[in-house]
Amino acid sequence: MSQDTTDLAGLRVLVTGAAGGLGRATAEALHAAGAHLVLTTRDADSLPRAAAGLDRGPEVVTAAADVTNDVELAKAVELATERLGGIDVLVNNAGVPGPAGPAWENDPAEWWHAMEVNLGGALAACRAVLPGMIERGRGRVVAISSHAGHTRWPYVSAYSVSKAAVNKLTENMAIELLPHGITAFSYHPGIVDVGLGASATATRDSDNPWERRIESWLDTQRETGRYTPVAEAIANLLRLIRGEADALTGRYLTHEDDIAGLVAATGHA
Predict the structure, then answer these.
(1) Which residues are catalytic?
(2) pTM, whole model, 2 decimals?
């Protein structure tokens, strides 16, 4: 399996939530590896941040598309198809942390909004992208997940439940997409010091004691070396995008997994 850092040349990848955090870091790595990019952000004001510094080399298409808005997503895919001819890989990265605190005390609208963005947004992006992939008979979908969806994360139940649902959605879609030559994965990059895992003064000084408690826990994880370096978090993500894990379609995979070893165990290496 190739580890060439430029072997994504010509691949067309859509990354949602690309203005910052892991989405932006992923876009940078993909661009450096030769991939053409379609970068979506929630609003037009954040589009310049998504594309900053990516003006040389592979083509970069940007579009304001809230993942809870089917019309905006459809327009983004239409633009990508006009400019690039289609999309080969979808990286469902857009997400929100949701409310903090005991589930029964959370504002119901805030709790459900996390489900709408993290789960509903991932499905909406699939609805926009998959018809073109099915028509071409190939494609990959990678949903950024979390350990929070693989086990319990009390006091951030909306986030945890939404990511668990994303994992289960991936398992189901992987089977449904088998006849179409399309693979699907959910991927846990570890806790990274960008995006949702970044230090937040506003949260540390929050009036909500549960937000302060979570920020304190994140500080402890950072101080004890349990954060994942961004480059390490992205390394296995690039392997999924590249196609090295296609034999593992439907799986929940992490930054710590030996992708080559897992594929070899299936007999498809």
Answers:
(1) 159
(2) 0.93
